[in-house]
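Sample A.
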Amino acid sequence: WPWFLLPALVSPMMVGSRMDFSMLLEPLGFVKVLEWLFAIFVFATCGGFQGETALLVSCKGVVNKTITAAFAYPFRLNTVVFSAPDPKGCGGTWTDVYLMGNFSSSAQFFVTLAALVFLYCITALVVYIGYYHVYQQNSKFPVIDLSISALTAFLWLISTFVWAKALADIKVSTGASIIPGIESCKAPGTTCHFLSVTSMGILNVSVVFGLLSMILWAGNVWLVYKDTNLHNQWNRISESP
């Protein structure tokens, strides 16, 4: 029986719909598709990252043992501990060693914005493709779209620079500079050498996509502005004697 109710539920939503996929070739629709894709790239490159940093440790009863600390989004590094060199903990001289820093707020802000932008772009594309005539006839819709576009451009600016700063700190917190801060490596007879860390090139790419998203949304502000009464009023004022 649900199949009989489906047309009754869908038909009110489709009232007044005029499907026009040519809007995707117009600047307003094309830019929205790019914004949607870039939001996916930001979410995937930052939210899907997994890596590890490795040290080479020699201590009592242990020679050149590789220990690792695995980290991932949302980069709560202060909860990530290195694996112990051996079950006896280097004769009792080795204690749990954690990475430094909690960068979850910056990373989650960045990724959450991408997720919200993804959803908004889908909604906007549905309106552009199916209800653009309604969008143009109601002066409130372009103004709302303009306000959201301006706010989104600003949020991309803030979140991208905040995430870029956090990424720089993550690289420091997982790189060779962590050795001097490890007390267990200062124990007599213990030596630690930095071995490697997972490449964070994909995270650099996420910053690039964040900046490109900011530029796209800033340009989108102008495209939407041309559809508002504000632009039309300004044209009438400038053309009047």
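Sample B.
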Amino acid sequence: MASLLEMKEVFRNADAVCFDVDSTVIREEGIDELAKFCGVGDAVAEMTRRAMGGTVTFKAALTARLGLIRPSYEQVQKLISDHPPQLTPGIRELVNRLHQRGVQVFLISGGFQSIVEHVALQLNIPTANVFANRLKFYFNGEYAGFDETQPTAESGGKGKVITHLKEQFHFKNVVMIGDGATDMEACPPADCFIGFGGNVIRKQVKEKAKWYITHFDELLKELEER
């Protein structure tokens, strides 16, 4: 197992950094915000807590939560316009710095493509670097399920995305940063996992992650010291 010093070396020499989105890049959980917007916030928040704790499979939790919410296309668009996702302090500066260094930045999320693409736009991350779940709608805009073929719809899906990126781009050092169990389990294939507790602290991740931070400034400092 890599030491903290070795992990910091991997981060400083990363050619790709992958971020989780909900409670990492943005302050909230997108699915919980959508649930609140659709009037089923409490029931869905409880399901999210169980999913993040790793006690149920991600796909089972996602199916159950979306079955309760049943968001229409109009509701999703109105959520984004009326309550746009709030960026976590320091993330914009960190992504800018990584881009300046020629590092590829990816967003890998169990959240929804339309919301995550809105976040990517604010951070100058190309939409091609977004991997998230796709909601499906009938022609009249009613909820029609989600695309179950997306790797991010499965437990272990973030690791599959990273494996795909390594094969496609021949990255040597890939870093995964996130707050939850699904992020931690993506290493390996990621070469380094950094736990993030700036918005919410998941006990399991805090206890098991060798490198755990609560503010993105800590990572900016690592890059500046070189």
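B remarks: Residues 12 and 226 are 8 Å apart (CA to CA). The domain at 34-82 is CATH 1.10.150 (DNA polymerase; domain 1).
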